[in-house]
């Protein structure tokens, strides 16, 4: 899908505040209400805008421990990868899972309340994921940057 400057500006504004009204959005981007609404609907239909969400503050919810875990699997056949990826979906504390290049197969991001909770998660669930050969955990000490905004460039 080709995006013009108005589409890109709509996306920039909506990334910052998905609750912005159509009237406000049209003012921000310099379009009248109806063309702005049509563009938003088109980008939703095309899947550029997947969903609108509410972002939560993990610290205020007492979920202040972030752990990054590199995972190495015992083998890499198609069924093994599918089984691992399916099992990861079932663990709510895993908030991100990425396949990676290089020596490690996956990178997981886990958010928990405490180190003790992570220890229990590790013992009871993570080490039992299908075909896991090795897990390497790193605790985040401080979050320096946190954005949900994609870097939408100008045309």
From TrEMBL:
According to the entry, every stretch annotated as the HTH asnC-type domain falls at 3-64
Query: Where does the record place a coiled coil?
Result: none
List GO BP terms, alphabetically: response to amino acid
Write down the InterPro entries for this protein, in alphabetical order: AsnC-type_HTH_dom, Dimeric_a/b-barrel, Tscrpt_reg_AsnC-like, Tscrpt_reg_AsnC/Lrp_C, Tscrpt_reg_HTH_AsnC-type_CS, WH-like_DNA-bd_sf, WH_DNA-bd_sf
Q: Does the keyword tRNA processing apply?
A: no
List the transmembrane segments: none
**Gene3D superfamilies per record:** 3.30.70.920, Winged helix-like DNA-binding domain superfamily/Winged helix DNA-binding domain
Q: Name one GO cellular component term.
A: cytosol
- Give the keywords, sorted: DNA-binding, Transcription, Transcription regulation
A molecular function annotated in GO for this UniProt entry is:
sequence-specific DNA binding
Q: Name one Pfam family in it.
A: HTH_24
Protein name, UniProt field: AsnC family transcriptional regulator
**Source species:** Glaciecola nitratireducens (strain JCM 12485 / KCTC 12276 / FR1064)
């Amino acid at each position: 899908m080709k995006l013009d400057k108005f589409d890109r500006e709509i996306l920039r504004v909506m990334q910052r505040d998905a609750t912005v009204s159509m009237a406000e959005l049209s003012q921000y981007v310099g379009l009248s209400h109806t063309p702005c609404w049509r563009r938003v609907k088109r980008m939703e239909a095309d899947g550029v805008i997947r969903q609108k969400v509410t972002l939560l503050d993990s610290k205020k919810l007492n979920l202040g421990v972030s752990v990054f875990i590199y995972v190495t699997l015992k083998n890499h056949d198609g069924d093994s990868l599918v089984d691992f990826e399916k099992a990861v979906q079932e663990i709510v504390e895993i908030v991100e899972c990425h396949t990676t290049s290089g020596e490690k197969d996956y990178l997981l991001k886990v958010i928990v309340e405490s180190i003790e909770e992570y220890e229990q998660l590790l013992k009871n669930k993570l080490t039992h994921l299908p075909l896991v050969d090795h897990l390497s955990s790193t605790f985040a000490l401080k979050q320096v940057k946190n954005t949900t905004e994609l870097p939408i460039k100008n045309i």
